[in-house]
TrEMBL record:
It comes from the Bacteria. Keywords: Hydrolase, Protease. Involved in the modulation of the specificity of the ClpAP-mediated ATP-dependent protein degradation. Binds to the N-terminal domain of the chaperone ClpA. PANTHER family: ATP-DEPENDENT CLP PROTEASE ADAPTER PROTEIN CLPS (PTHR33473:SF19), ATP-DEPENDENT CLP PROTEASE ADAPTER PROTEIN CLPS1, CHLOROPLASTIC (PTHR33473). The gene is clpS. GO terms for biological process: protein catabolic process; proteolysis. InterPro entries: ClpS, ClpS_core, Ribosomal_bL12_C/ClpS-like. This is ATP-dependent Clp protease adapter protein ClpS. The keyword Transcription regulation does not apply. The keyword Hydrolase applies.
Length: 99
């Protein structure tokens, strides 16, 4: 009976963390504060207190960091914000910046 030889293959898997992006809402003179809070709760899953704090940052500082996501998730969330804002006729804008 022939002896089976088991070949061991050494694997050196090196996974890099994906690049992360901050999603930022930008202030404008027309979008209501209530709508910004609605966006933060529905799109970004913030609780009411956190949504209000971020909305006040947007209103007072001109921009508010909503979260940090991978590229694809950030782009998807920005597209959803733009879609919802357009449907409600608000000029709300969201951008992403590398972290």
């Amino acid at each position: 009976m022939a002896e089976k030889t088991i070949l061991k293959r050494e694997t050196n898997l090196d996974f890099n963390k994906p690049k992360m992006y901050k999603v930022i809402l930008l202030n404008d003179d027309y979008t209501t504060m209530d709508f910004v809070v609605e966006i933060l709760i529905t799109v970004f899953h913030k609780n009411a207190a956190d949504a209000t704090k971020i909305m006040l940052d947007v209103h007072q500082k001109g921009r508010g960091i909503v979260g940090v996501y991978t590229y694809d998730i950030a782009r998807t969330k920005i597209a959803l914000v733009e879609k919802m804002a357009t449907e409600r006729e608000f000029p709300l804008a969201a951008v992403m910046e590398p972290e």
